[in-house]
């Protein structure tokens, strides 16, 4: 056989050989035995053979290069046997792999890179054809790929495919790298659809890898439980020992670090496993010091160490009341640290008086705690037993690049701790120390109020050893980076404290002081005078008033000549003024005329009028709340028209929405419009609250403007017809939350919602009319998490509750007016929804006639309301609830339900999360003006409510002349 010489490819210029490569892989189609041989092609033409059209390819190649680069061809073409000298050689292998290897051997390396698309064919070809250099390159590429900490670079399906190939062919470097890669990127991997397809042995190797990176132990446990549930049935059929394997996987979870709510939730489908977790957490809460000391002696401390690796970005311990300060420190100690020093550290950070915190200096200088520079967020929310002074020192030691710190619902996180955090970790960008807002509002009539300082207010332990000048004096010398500060609900912060925050004047851009009731208009104004870079404010339900508005609108930098640029209000991007009664209409109108670049605007329950809203000419709004104001469509219509990016519109309670007001100044182009017409021509809403002014509504008017709605509230003043309510899942296919007040509903409406709105997580029905029956809730709703049925389902029985527990997995349940329920309802609720965080029962028959023991079995409860539910609640209910429920923050009772003529006040809330206790009192009125009193007839009438509220420093007792 002859070959052309002129113009021949350089790859075959020396000693050419023709390779006839026939595909022998399982996917190859068998060709006709009599089919002619395909003509030979040059190696350079192989790039065009994709996808391969024939099971056989004939290739011209340079014999010398094949022999030099491949042990397979060295033996085949360079040996002493007869085939070695032939010019035409037949090879049977995976055709795609062979073609990829030949391209690798003869094409320039820069034009033929290894990717996840060609990696497996190259690896298979390198193994079969024994190309040592390619094996090295494949291993190098796979190492490089695995060193990337973003799982977006390669699909999980690819990793699984490579793992199976490596197991079959004994490729050890792949078997070593795959578990490490998945472990480092585990937070990304668990969100992939193919996560449940990960082979058991690969998942085992991954969870055992020391580089396993998760945000929390909950994230790991959720992933394993999901994998086990998806694989249990098929695995049990193939492998009877699979249950033991699944047990092994679950044993790798550090159950003592799981959030309590999550732990109780696992009891629903994994009762034994979940019950073991709950018991472990509750036992740990009783004596954490002894537990940790025993673990040190036994060398089992690893099970109590938080998972932190060099790849960790977030650390989330939210909802773990069992976490104490010692847990934080042992997690960043070197593994080779002396046992005696470990014992001293654990003992020190567990003592109540914290008198041994001088160990901090020893840790900082001698022990050299580990440092994790990739960690940008730490969340210690709902961790009442953490000492935050010591926790701040921990943040400084371990996380030099920390940007976000969250400690929500932590009364133990004092304002002094905030100042100390600014001193110790000035590089932090965002702090959130939100607590529940006060239940007392300015609208309520207060009979009497008194307060007392709490007995034990923990001081910062560092102050025991380091003589410090006042924080505010130290802060002046600190360059802080705080741009976002959230203090919502903190009614322990006053104007003096707010003045100390003004040290952040060069960086503070966002502040949330919602429901900080001790702050005055003067105090807020002074903060704004100093922190002039603030462009986002949440000041709802505070004393924010005219003085603060004048500060925002006043020209304070006369050297500026660029219009409004020197006026602080001109730069406002987010402004929440809901419930600020201290603002008059004139001041609000002045503010509206300036804030033209605002994106988020809440004016709920303010003195906003049409005149004020007409002065707003902004066109960037994404969020607008004007609920409970007197505005009409005269002013609202042009605002909707101008703001095409509006995705949230709340107008509930606007009684005047359909009425024009003569006093509104005429504006050119301001034409009165219809709400639905306006939003239909504007954009797509995601969050809607509507009441007066939107009736009647036709289905066609809601499409397509409501096609992206996720949260919908319909209140008094709008009546949605049954056909519209039934069509909601079609109109709003992404609907997640639905609240209906004073609507006419039916079984058909509710069943259709539960059946068709597959994303529905929240369903609230308040005071709705209609003929609902038990048939309504017999549809499965796996996504539903919050259910509130207030005065709409008086027919609910224990059987109906049982059906509900089977059809949905709730975390919040609120029932009112369900008079057929009895004491057995408690057991149904607590066993069916063990992870309930909120339980409100009002006028619900005789639920508590035999006490509340089953309710207290829902260990994750944070909010309980029991009113007129049966005269059987004992005197010790408050102490019992606080002791049995580590996450409890709110408790509301009615003295009508007391079986011993009242309740004892709590004796100890130290180390707890209790924020408010409400006890309502009723008096008995016999008969009415319309009927004569009869023997034994009585009707409870509300008299007042005793409210106990805790903050970080004080207990306030208030008597309110109404029910709260």
UniProtKB/TrEMBL annotation:
Region (Disordered): 1-46
Pathway entry: Protein modification; protein ubiquitination
Biased composition regions of type Low complexity, renumbered to the chain: 25-34
Residue span(s) of domain BACK: 159-268
Pfam families given in the database record: BACK
Signal sequence extent: none
CDD domains in the cross-refs: BTB_POZ_ZBTB_KLHL-like
Protein role: May act as a substrate-specific adapter of an E3 ubiquitin-protein ligase complex (CUL3-RBX1-BTB) which mediates the ubiquitination and subsequent proteasomal degradation of target proteins.
Entry protein name: BACK domain-containing protein
Species in which this protein is naturally found: Urochloa decumbens
